[in-house]
Amino acid sequence: MVETSDEWIRERTGIRQRHIVDKGVATSELAVQAACRALSQRGISGADIEAIFLGTVTPDMSFPATACLIQDRIGAKSAWGFDISAACSGFVYALQTGVKFVESGAHKRVMVIGADVMSSIIDYTDRATCVIFGDGAGAVIIEPATDDNYIMDFHHEVDGAGGSFLNMPAGGSLHPASHETVDKKMHFVHQDGQQVFKYAVRKMAEASEKVLSRNGFKGSDVALFVPHQANKRIIASAADRLGLKDEQIIINIDEFGNTTAGTIPLAMESARQQGRLKKGDLVLITAVGAGFTVGATLLRWAC
After folding, report:
1. Residue 88 annotated as catalytic
2. Which of 68, 107, 228, 252 is labelled catalytic?
3. pLDDT at 148 over 90
């Protein structure tokens, strides 16, 4: 559909394959599957969850929040929740939201999900975006720490001046859906790749450096770096600035592409399956997304 090749895509992005949902499959369905797997691994049921925070830019509909649909489908009868729109930083932002509710004592079990069906908002005739994104979801459960393995610190920031470089122009109150907005393809992702690349490389490294130095660590102390899987070259550049070696980095963009809010929980699961996470490991998570949004989290792996 566009002038490209498998060789060009692999060289420029690191993507070998992606997963795309069947027609009619919405974000909630992927999120529910991820949530149920997390519940099963933990040995609890949806009834044990007290709040649900979902990072996504592809909700099933504008309202109600997709978190509400998930709450119903997993049987979390006592839970409340909402969606968080921070694009590729969505999971990182949702994670800290969940952490703060647990730290405060307000809740004991919180579900945090990152999920996106990006294929629903991609123009597959636009080479700037069509080779990058895939569909995916991941979920974690946040509970009070019982030892020294816990989420230690975070750094978040936004730069709204970058909003024009990565966005979906229509569908909101500024440009409600109309024949014109559809004809102009304004309901698809629009991206200035060069601007996004430069900002992501700089800010992923800066946010990571801030959260590390604030806690007396440097790159060599990190057991595993879990970056947003936007582009293999972005990950490599940010890791180089942090002085990280290949064995300290988890990369699975070759398997899944950029699943937006789904990338970090999917990467964490890949690392877990590969046996690359041990109890007590220092783990650094970082992401940059549309907005621009930036987030970094430092934690000790707990299981």
Report:
1. yes
2. 228
3. no
